[in-house]
């Protein structure tokens, strides 16, 4: 429902920004809605809109890719065990397999919340709830992401401490993390690390920065969601309780 405000003449509808309406409908996050508008994929009352910041009311007929917004699906929340060799995007210009291809039996549109690298597997949330996705990705909510990494060599306690204190990436220290060695055979070590930032290839770069390149990386947990019961390429709908936990968190 679009916003309303009071006036001396009664209740008057307050116009809302177009990208906010698209996000509320569950088609995309606000940032992705900006991209849809700029690409000319959104129309209002039959006219294509490319200008950001346009405001609309419930009287306006909005369509995305020719599809009326009123026909948008309700909220959908998916946990995917993303395999390696899959890109975290809705479309790929190089025709590589995407996370959407992993959801072949799902008819509704969803989009990934955040990213996982091409060569990283693990827990990935996909949804059409743009508002929740925006909050989960916002740095101020510091959503935890836990990874299990296999790195080269026998990792030192000093390297683990450095990972926890923060390492310099692009001239800026990473936020404090937790890192624990779960075992080593001398040639490699298994590390569980939890971060709440989302910089590009951050975990791999952190291990490289302390001298232990990553051989394998799996995100085992996203916020309160774990991979329990899933194999690479498999997915499931979130339970009502899991959705409530995510909403409460942010």
Provide the fold topology:
Layout: E1 4-7, E2 10-13, E3 16-17, H1 18-24, H2 30-38, E4 42-44, E5 47-49, E6 55-56, E7 62-64, E8 67-68, E9 77-82, E10 111-112, E11 121-127, H3 130-137, E12 145-152, H4 157-165, E13 168-169, E14 172-173, E15 178-184, E16 188-195, H5 202-209, E17 214-222, E18 225-226, E19 235-237, H6 240-249
In short:
Helices cover about 20% and strands about 30% of the residues. By secondary structure, it is α+β, with helices and mostly antiparallel strands.
Give a quick account of the main beta sheet: strands, pairing sense, barrel closure.
Answer: 9 strands, mixed
Residues in helices, as a percent range:
10-25%
Described by the principal axes of the CA atoms, the overall outline is elongated
- Cα distance spanning the termini: 21 Å
Overall domain count: 3
Reported CATH architecture of the largest domain: 2-Layer Sandwich
CATH class type of the largest domain: Alpha Beta
H/I helix tally:
6
Uncertain spans, ≥5 residues at pLDDT below 50? 3-12
Tags for this model:
alpha+beta; Structural Genomics Hypothetical 15.5 Kd Protein In mrcA-pckA Intergenic Region, Chain A; Alpha-Beta Plaits; 3 domains; 9-stranded mixed beta sheet; 4-stranded antiparallel beta sheet
Description:
The chain is α+β, with helices and mostly antiparallel strands. It folds into three domains: 4-71, RNA-binding S4 domain (Structural Genomics Hypothetical 15.5 Kd Protein In mrcA-pckA Intergenic Region, Chain A); 77-139 and 225-249, Alpha-Beta Plaits, CATH 3.30.70; 144-222, Alpha-Beta Plaits (2-Layer Sandwich), CATH 3.30.70. The chain has six helices and 19 strands. It has helices at residues 18-24, 30-38, 130-137, 157-165, 202-209, 240-249, and strands spanning 4-7, 10-13, 16-17, 42-44, 47-49, 55-56, 62-64, 67-68, 77-82, 111-112, 121-127, 145-152, 168-169, 172-173, 178-184, 188-195, 214-222, 225-226, 235-237. Strands 9, 10, 11, 12, 15, 16, 17, 18 and 19 form a nine-stranded mixed sheet that branches. A hairpin with an 8-residue loop joins β10 (111-112) and β11. The protein starts with a strand and ends with a helix. Mean pLDDT is 90; it is low at 3-12.
């Amino acid at each position: 429902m679009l916003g309303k405000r009071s006036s001396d003449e009664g209740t008057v509808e307050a116009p809302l920004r177009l990208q906010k309406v698209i996000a509320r409908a569950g088609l995309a996050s606000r940032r992705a809605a900006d991209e849809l508008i700029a690409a000319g994929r959104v129309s209002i009352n039959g006219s294509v809109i490319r200008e950001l910041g346009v405001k609309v009311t419930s009287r306006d007929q909005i369509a995305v890719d020719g599809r009326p917004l009123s026909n948008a699906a309700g909220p959908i929340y998916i946990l995917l065990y993303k395999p390696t060799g899959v890109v975290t995007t809705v479309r790929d210009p190089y025709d590589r397999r995407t996370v959407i291809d992993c959801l072949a039996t799902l008819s509704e549109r969803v989009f990934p919340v955040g990213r996982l690298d091409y060569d990283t597997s693990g827990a990935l949330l996909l949804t059409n709830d743009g508002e929740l996705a925006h909050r989960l990705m916002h740095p101020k909510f510091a959503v935890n992401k836990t990874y299990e990494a296999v790195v080269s060599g026998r990792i030192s306690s000093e390297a683990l401490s450095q990972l926890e204190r923060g390492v310099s990436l692009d001239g800026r220290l990473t936020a404090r993390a937790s890192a624990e060695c779960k075992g080593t055979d001398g040639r490699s070590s298994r590390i569980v690390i939890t971060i709440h930032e989302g910089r590009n290839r951050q975990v791999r770069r952190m291990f490289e920065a302390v001298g232990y390149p990553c051989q394998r990386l799996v995100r085992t947990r996203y916020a309160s969601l774990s991979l329990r019961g899933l194999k690479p390429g498999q997915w499931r709908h979130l339970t009502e309780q899991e959705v409530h936990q995510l909403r409460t968190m942010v």
